[in-house]
Structures
1.
Amino acid sequence: MGGQQITPELRDWIIAQAEAGHSPQSVLNAMQASGWEEDVALSAMEDVLQARAQAHTPDQQLTRKPMPDVPAMQASRIHAHDREVTLQVQIQHPRVVVIGGFLSAEECTQLMALAEPRLSRSETVVNATGGSEVNAARTSHGMFFGRGENALCARIEARIAALLQWPVEHGEGIQILRYAPGAEYRPHHDYFDPAQPGTPTILQRGGQRVGTLVMYLNDPLEGGATTFPDAGVTVHPVAGSAVFFAYPLPTPQTKTLHGGAPVLKGEKWVATKWLREGRFI
Ligand code: PD2
Ligand code: ZN
């Protein structure tokens, strides 16, 4: 963090800005314009969210709001519910974790087989209205399982909850995507843009998205990596492995812009789990 400290004065100033109705984004912009490093500014903003939540108990110590994440430990293997998985790469900002062996080969095959008859052209949420529509930026086919819809989904959801220390009830149903050659998912953020008029409606079902787990179900022959352009990170799809990333605030400063690069040869199948801050109903 280059030595910049979150002083009590800075914290008070941020709280004052938030209470005056300024958006997190505009406060972050103001901080950066006055020389604060992006990471320090974002970290302070996360504390402010918690301060607001605790406004009725001001004597309590400020703590960060909880976020989904893998347990903080040095071990490269973690027991998650019913399976041992491996931690392969961890990045702090943006928070990105690459996990090996998250799904077995049979689970990958079963998810694809169950999803295939239900696939249709993927739609994206229209933030302006809260509805969804077909979009040229997302040329895959997809479907959603209901949460706990079958024993396989329930088991994988319990594994995700154990690995990311986040309740099953805070997760959306698993989404399956199939990309044909040439198909892609252009870079986007998974949180809902607070500036869009449709966002309050979307947030009624469990609040913001705060984390994403993309699980790879097969090995595309060429292309199809998940890219994080603002972080210079590329995750190559390998059947059974997964990439997790988290975004404590709905702002591009989280550097969680990400996309699915065009598939060049073969198909690419993924399962995505989006995690909400509250119970998703
Ligand atoms: O399939 C991917 O690599 C990918 C990329 C970006 C999936 C998602 N986003 C997603 O499902 O949100
Ligand atoms: Zn995404």
2.
Amino acid sequence: MKTRVWTVDNIVDKQQIYPQIQEAAEWLRAGEVVAFPTETVYGLGADAANTAAVGKIFAAKGRPSDNPLIVHVANVAQVEAIAAAIPPVAKTLMERFWPGPLTLVLPKRAGTVSERVTANLPTVAVRMPDHPLALALIEASGLALAAPSANRSGKPSPTTAAHVLADLNGRIAGVIDGGPTGIGVESTVLDCSGEVPTILRPGGVTKEALSEAVGRVEEAVGMGDEQTAPKAPGMKYTHYAPKAPLSIVSGPPSLLQQLVDESRAGGKTVGVLTTEENKSRYAADVVLACGTRRELETVAHRLYDTLRRFDETGVDLIYSEAFPEEGIGVAIMNRLKKAAGGRVIRE
Ligand code: AMP
Ligand code: MG
């Protein structure tokens, strides 16, 4: 299969649907899979009601079939069509955070989205992306789009169309290239199907912001911990991993440098993931700065690209600095720990 690339301007006049978007929308209606930018990462979309189309997502990604997909919508009527009910808490959050990086898990309306999307769960995960091209595509297709991140399963999520093509060229019908994504880590997944809203995956919307809007919010047991039984089915899989083994070092730069020195003495080629503030403090084979600590949003924005850049350097192993687990830092550390397979070296 030859993968079509539609290059479009990121700033869309909402009244004007570009011919490229129309064509991509037609392909989606015909049951093809198309990658598109969102404000978090690139998604790989298919008609959520079409089981064969959804099957192409799992095939292209190599995604385990028990890991359900998020359904992307452009209006609340689409949510009402696929959810059996929208609890008051969910309504409040939709008004406050949509469009935006918040996914809500709601009771599913039977016979709407494909069972492959929801992995036979009684719930469905929905979100409205805050990206003009994503919204234009959903509107032009008239479909709710099931869309996981547009990477091969296990790899870092794509934040550019080039990342999508590196993983999926020849495996998907097309990709809309709308430039780099903004936030850089995926949406927060919040389960609203029970008594107390529960974060299943930390992401672009912080726990603090959610609590401010609706009061009590819990975190799923084992949210960042691979050993505990997962509530979000996706939590149990290895994710975001660069080719070289990655370890997080929780301690001062001197400790990280000591580990680098030991590994290099053992003949290894070593990479360091740090930030602009600290990059001159390390002597290693490859030192990559991922944003600045002063603004953790810049770290989130650059994280997956930085992990992918290590793949091109051929290092044998990577040591990463740790980040404060507050605000967006919770999502950054959640992704880093998964990329590291849980390896955290402490002082
Ligand atoms: P991705 O599509 O790669 O961003 O991952 C989607 C995340 O949402 C995974 O962690 C899924 O397990 C989670 N998810 C999707 N649908 C549901 C659902 N119905 N219930 C709980 N978690 C879900
Ligand atoms: Mg993903």
3.
Amino acid sequence: MIRGKQIYEGKAKKLFETDDPELVIVSYKDDATAFNGQKKGTIEAKGEINNRMSNLLMKMLEEKGIRTHFVRELNSSETLVKKLSIIPLEVIVRNITAGSFSSRFGVEEGIVFDSPTIEFSYKNDALGDPLINSYHVAALKLATSEEIAAVKDTAFRVNSELKSFWAERGVTLVDFKLEFGRLADGTVVLADEISPDTCRLWASATKKKLDKDRFRRDLSGVAEAYREIMSRLERSRS
Ligand code: ADP
Ligand code: UDP
């Protein structure tokens, strides 16, 4: 697979063209940002960990019948994926209160919901990724109501698969962000990444944060936490 010109550089990844117009290469960086880019830094080996973890999780989801953009891992930090037209939404599923849910509604972190919640943010850095509801999504023609229904259904299925996957490894899935996109034929599939950058993952026994919240909140041991969550995932595969 020939790596062509760079099409995009985001905060955590770069995208490259390939010789196949339907495929792109995602290249993961060690760069980390938080608070809409206001806090910047790097996390040692993050690119490789996120690449590998996201690929393993997407493969697991494919085996459960959930369609994703994943094609093939090319090397430790690069993966071949299907080129999608991204639906500009951050789809956030929560099992436990944390982060912006806690601050927005004035509730402490760590309260377990009876059933998961879902919310959308409009992916727009200039506007600060504002919350948006299904009616706004349809009104702005960001997605059709059929697509929104498919996105919600898939997001909850992803949640139940990821929740049990991590529970088997002694990890609690608190919340996470997904993105979706359309293939050329209009089929909506799971895109982007599933990693400690995009999920809150707590060690079940100690509630230790094993995700990007360590970076956001200036906690110690950021790179160690990324390595620990990856080793928990790898260890239980053998
Ligand atoms: P950001 O754009 O928020 O800074 P990243 O650095 O993670 O985020 O950049 C990756 C970009 O690639 C995101 O904008 C994401 O929506 C987009 N993307 C993810 N998967 C695909 C795909 N399969 N096809 C096209 N674009 C994708
Ligand atoms: N998230 C993400 N990208 C974003 C915003 C949130 O991956 O731009 C993830 C975040 O890692 C967490 C979940 O979505 O797992 C919910 O985040 P929240 O809304 O609580 O926002 P935050 O506290 O990160 O501002």
4.
Amino acid sequence: MSFSWSPKDNKSCNNPPAATGFKRSRNDIGNKVTVVLGAQWGDEGKGKVVDMLATEADLVCRCQGGNNAGHTVVVDGKEYDFHLLPSGIINSKSTSLIGNGVVIHLPGLFEEGDKNEKKGLKGWDKRLIVSDRAHLVFDFHQVVDGLQETQRQAQEGKNIGTTKKGIGPTYSSKASRTGLRVCDLMGDFKDFSARFKNLVQQYQSMYPALTVDAEDQLKKLKEYAERLRPMVRDGVYYMYEALHGSQKKILVEGANAALLDIDFGTYPFVTSSNCTVGGACTGLGIPPLNIGDVFGVSKAYTTRVGIGAFPTEQLNAVGELLQTRGHEVGVTTGRKRRCGWLDLVILKYAHMINGFTAIALTKLDILDVLDEIKVGVAYKINGKRVPHFPANLEVLQKVEVEYETFPGWKTDTAAARKWNDLPPKAQNYIRFIENHIGVPIKWVGVGKSRECMIQMF
Ligand code: GDP
Ligand code: IMO
Ligand code: MG
């Protein structure tokens, strides 16, 4: 599957910025990175899109999130799921990087690698680079994630429905400047142990029910440290060299999605990182000018795992059909995903933030059997259209969705490989979506595997 990678803008940009002025010519930019981001509430099929693009990529990077992500890739009938590893790890010719913005649970990382190795993924640990600035998720962060959920349930009668992978507590440790990073683990272990114990103590004073066998944890961490050491690099310098060395195809794999973003998502029912385009810069240490194409991934309908507002949710036979036909079950947690019609209000909102250059529309095939298909095009409050996406969840919960209704195509699209193979009614549906959002749809997914992707241009 080919698409045009942004070319390197200059051949002589190995030099550091000129000392004589702060304005560099655009020619000094270096390689551009292509970013793939979830445009809804996650599980849009980012793994599949990344896998398709990664067959040509030299470097595939994760920039945020942790093993709360669950990305499925199907190759030659074999299904792989990736949580912390970039999905591009499957391509034996490319290197994968876990950037500083990611939070890493070391037992989870090695378990994932070993599990996939048994499925045939050879040499993954030789192709993986880990930033020394990435923060570490400890087992007790995961326990605390669970305790916080119990506390929310007791205090508010509801929780967030987190993945319990310790994501929130680890980003909290990072923000409160008590977190520990990969570089700390690579340094003096005595210092690391002292800081680890302090962190444990802090959490135990907040959560008296928390028991941690610090010595046992440290023993295990010491072993993981040696397994990790060969992969660790200064992530910023690694990226700088990748951007400014020879021409390279660099891909950034977003985890989670726009509506789960800590700043722009449906707060507080969100994750704890920036899953929108800014996260690619802060999570890898790359300048905004090096961002090239930004591809948004959206299903042809909408799903959400966990709790929170979902204006186009269908708590009826349509929702059930989407759930069962779409096999909408969380890759990380095994929870059933909530399902509803495609919501163009959220896609427009995701586009405002990310500036998508094109969209990959996945799972069109799931709609094949429907008599009619609806698309949410606007939100109304008291009969009046709202021009923006409401920040306040109470407001969002009350919006009335205005729908456009399309006739179903009632044709199996799974074998379609080009635009002309699609039934005209399906083409109509796709054209409506791209016109409404104002972003071209570059790929349409009609099945799980690599070849089930129609490229439009
Ligand atoms: P991610 O988290 O965004 O990578 O997505 P997930 O892997 O969590 O969920 C997407 C699911 O949809 C996976 O099971 C994919 O194999 C599947 N999938 C992706 N694209 C398509 C498609 O076009 N059609 C069908 N039927 N399944 C798809
Ligand atoms: P991918 O990359 C779907 C959701 C969780 C929960 C909320 C907070 O596979 O698209 P967290 O554990 O991050 O603190 O949970 O965010 N969530 C996801 N939902 N796909 C994901 O990732 C998600 N990552 C987090 O269900 O509601
Ligand atoms: Mg997923």
